[in-house]
Amino acid sequence: MMNAHDAHHGMDSSSGHAGRHTEDDGSAPHQGHAGHTEHDVSAGHGDHDGRAGHGGHGGHEGHGDHVGQFRRLFWANLLLAVPVVAFSGMFAMLIGYAIPDFPGSRWIAPVLGTVMYAWGGRPFLTGALSEVKSRRPGMMLLIALAITVAFVASWGASLGVLHHELEFWWELALLIVIMLLGHWLEMRSLAQTTSALDSLAALLPDEAARIEGDEIVRVSPADLRVGDVVVVRPGASVPADGVVVDGRADMDESMLTGESRTVSRGAGDRVTAGTVATDSGLRVEVTATGDDTALAGIRKLVAEAQASSSRAQRLADRAAAWLFWFALGAAVLTALLWSLAGDPDAAVIRTVTVLVIACPHALGLAIPLVVSIATERAARAGVLVKDRLALESMRGIGTVLFDKTGTLTKGEPTVTAVAPAEGWEADAVLALAASVEADSEHPLAKAIVRAASDLDVPTATGFSSSPAVGVKAAVDGRDVRVGGPKMLEEVDAAEIPDAAAWRAEGAIILHVVRDGEVIGGLRLADEIRGESREAVDALHRRGVEVVMITGDAEAVARTVAGQLGIDRVFAGVRPEDKSAKVAELQREGKKVAMVGDGVNDAPALAQADVGIAIGAGTDVAIASAGVILASDDPRSVLSVIELSRAGYRKMKQNLWWAAGYNLLSVPLAAGVLAPVGFVLPMSVGAVLMSLSTIVVALNAQALRRLDLRPEAAVRR
């Protein structure tokens, strides 16, 4: 519980510290300062001097069902395809073997081929019907057209009504098997992101150790309620989201953040369900269960990402529609020209070949397979793609706008310098300040105590505080005070020489006084994340402008920007004005990605071309962002850019390969080179079609080798 004096510390600062998710602009209350705003100068660590403070294919729903459906259909139809192909007369003629002759042998291919058409082809036929009803011809209609034409032509040849060259049972069987395989792979890939995240739920323990009075009772995690306190033993996982109330442990959070190193969590720190206490035990008060946990939220985000469409996918769908009319037009023209040439048999053969070869299965895999693999890889690396459009747009981002507090900085103060008076050592000054602040939970007090953690800190007694002045206590029989300018006025003492320079940098300044004599000063500032400089440098190497936005005073913002090498700064920005700054950059013709973590960042995240919530952020920030970074590491922004650019390259390659195959093979199948003696055999066209599908699938799978760890992304 916060001590009464926490609201009465005095401080000299051009930037007071607010909570992790709030940058104070003068309108929001300082968290941890008893609700006083920065204009209430009777609160805080002294005199605030009035300056700003911190503060796909149709039917992609139900991926699991589709995976099972296409898996079963593929294996069953693969078994059926073996005798269909083996007893197909045209296939035997092409390979050069004799079909075994026994009663009924000539009907094996037609009968089993019909089963394959009706059973294995059903998903494509029903999808085609939906496209016809919606008057949006596309991929399913082309696939259905190809297998239907092959089916009808093959029965005509088997019954002797059509030319024997139109016996396509082996082609029909291979078409269906290849398409089922492709759709199975696609559905499995689409489902892998959800599966990867669902597997996080499996990391939850089967039982939770809940404290009930003086006893520890084992219960199911599903029976936990908010407010329960549970024991997490060394090596065990946390059963629900909560706050550590006792103990300290190194937590393995890699399943959420993608980071391999453990993170120390102690009293007051939040822990997430599924993370593991590696070296010590904890007591955790439950703050969220069931659908309210971070894991449940992550799975929901991924589901939304999978349901969202993308520009590239819409392009592939439009390409399929164009290809449908292209194939249909080519088939009509082929039939007309070969008929006019006096060869009706060739007209039928060529027309059927065109319609079969035009089946765009590779095109169908080109985009969704890349997007699904990219989404899965991202999720495993702690990058959660909520909107596929955001991921696609990230490759073209020219400006990244970082919120400062909680994003580039840790959102909590730290002692950055100690200036001892003559005759004193820095450690001695810090130890005395820590002794006075030892029992306080105020952010500034905690920062001082944390800085002195390796020192021998004496015990203080007789603590008291004065509003807007400071705090004091007795240490070894001496009167020791910690505070700001008003405290110095009371004891009629001058500030340390370094204070002027610190004030120009916007630092928080506290003085330490013993028996009326100033023995030193403390410089405190919002601690910059160690990874921030690497992130900024890596963005610069990629030609990306880096801008910082903050509610802090100009001096504070310029100091942080100078340390990080940031190109441009917006300082003293009120939360409601952040989105206007994003719009200002956009009016300059820049494509902007906004990176933030707080409630006050939500409008700016929504305004940006790509909104990125870092460190899981708040619910409001997540709702406004297209990409969510599970970790607090700003270098993860580089992972998003790398993934977007790599995914786009794969999409382009796949689209060119898939569409190019169809655009080239259809005219050849129609007989455009017949005058020079070349006509593409249907068998060769089918083999090329299969190869194009394999190439597209393998090309997309190459994305799995992309290393999205933040430390790897900044090195590239």
Low-confidence segments: 1-8, 13-64, 193-197
Structural class: alpha+beta
Count of β-strands: 23
- Tell me the helix content: 40-55%
Q: Count every helix, treating DSSP H or I runs of 4 or more residues as helices.
A: 26
Q: Give the overall silhouette.
A: elongated
Give the end-to-end Cα distance, rounded to a whole number of Å. Answer: 47 Å
Q: How would a textbook summarize the main sheet?
A: 7 strands, antiparallel
Proportion in β-strands: 15-25%
- If you compute it from the alpha carbons, what radius of gyration comes out, rounded to the nearest whole angstrom? 34 Å
Mean of residue pLDDT values: 78
How would you describe this protein?
This protein is of the alpha+beta class. Helix content is about 45%, strand content about 15%. It is built from 26 helices and 23 strands. The strands form four sheets. Strands 1, 13, 14, 15, 16, 17 and 18 form a seven-stranded antiparallel beta sheet that branches. A seven-stranded mixed beta sheet has the order 11-23-22-21-12-19-20, with helices on both faces. Strands 3-2-4-10-5-8 form a six-stranded antiparallel beta sheet, with no helix packed on it. Strand 14 and strand 15 (about 470-475) form a beta hairpin. It is elongated, with a radius of gyration of 34 Å. The model is unreliable at about 1-10, about 15-65 and about 195 (pLDDT under 50).
